[in-house]
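so my prof wants the structure for this chain in the tokens format not the other one, which i didnt know existed until like an hour ago. anyway here's the sequence
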Amino acid sequence: MFYRDTYKDRVKQYIIDLILNKKISPGDQVKEKDLSLHLGISRAPIREALRELIAEKILEYIPFKGTYLKKTSPKEALDIYITRGLLEGYAVADSISSNLKNMKRLTYFIENMYLAAKDRDHIKLIEFGHQFHNLLMKGCSNSLILTETNRLGLICHLLFFNFWTQIYTPDQIKYRHDKILNIIYTKDKGKLEAVIREHYFETGKKISTLIKRGGYGEDNIF
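here's what i got, hopefully its the right format
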């Protein structure tokens, strides 16, 4: 079913698709054997994909039991967003020169995020948001920060995918990202780093509050 050199990545994407399409719920077990039989591949790349998803806080391994779709606690959600904000804040400030050259593309992504939000197209909203934030960090010279930031990106996207309609309107989504561009124009690295940190902290706090209130109903992924 898959080309050999992309087995692991495609298994990972397959599991993410199961989550996004609500084929598996928090607490459900993700079995190597079932994935191997369904996808027609060996267990080795499946184990690699599971290890990465565990590291990214999407799945959790329980000794002597197996691997399960993880329930994110309120504190974990807030910690994830705070950490992502800290790392991305540095990366974006370090990329300010390249960002000034990419303002048209960044604006394009914001406009499409806004349109996707208006259409309630969750997938496109996440895709354009992912492209926007990746481009913001493109000029960062610290590869370790980029690696760790990207590692946290998937869980952030999945949490946002699940909760965004409860925390932001389309206009608010546009305003929050336009605010970042406005700071870039000032060339003030300190303010830019601070606004990115606040960008993530605000969302993490809102999601954490929703989880505390019981945000694990049938319409929720995490």
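also thought this was worth mentioning. The mean pLDDT is 91.
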